[in-house]
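user: can you give me the structure for this one chain? tokens are fine.
assistant: on it. calling the predictor now.
[tool input]
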Amino acid sequence: MAVTSNFEPLIQKNDVLQITVTSLNPEDAVIYNASNTVVPTGGGGASSGNTAALGGFLVDPQGYIQYPVLGAIKAAGLTKKALTDYIHDQLEQRKLLVDPVVSVRFLNYRVTLLGEVTRPTVVNVTNDKISILEALGMAGDITVYGRKENVLLIRDQDGQRIIKRLNLNDKNILASPYYYLQSNDVVYVEPNKAKQISGEKSRVVLPIVFSGLSLIVIILDRLVLR
């Protein structure tokens, strides 16, 4: 089964994009690199004390970025290549720059792994794309208690919340439109019956154990008082 290879993540509302422009005259290109949002580079978890940051352009709730000179550009729903081509063409057609070179990348492309994985985590994606298998590998893979045949994918797209259940044991997963993850996707691995039964036994046994320990403490206390 062939892997879906032509996947390109779509730009979404609240994404932060780094847009870099160069040209034959560097001084003329400076204004087009003036970002309006700062994104910390310390990752998606608790603060690590790293104050380094990168500048970018925030995609607003209406799906637009406010770009120098060109004004409002509808970015949501476009691929990076489509936005790159649009900005390049506008700069060239309006004769704003000579031979402009435009580069666009995500600054807050991240996915969240929860449930029966070795290390529940938020993965910051530095490449153009990441598959669900790669993301799970970065979380230490699914534990022995995880249900590989019923992995939950939660995705917000075009104002709608999409919930899909994926069978990672099925070879057709490689051709699934959900094989590659979008920014802000959440992957939840459900526990299998063995884990659920184990948890239920713990809830039954632990109170009995604690009660027994309490009784032993009372008995020893009375013996000491004698």
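assistant: here you go. The longest strand covers residues 146-157. The helical segments are 26-29, 80-93, 132-138, 193-225.
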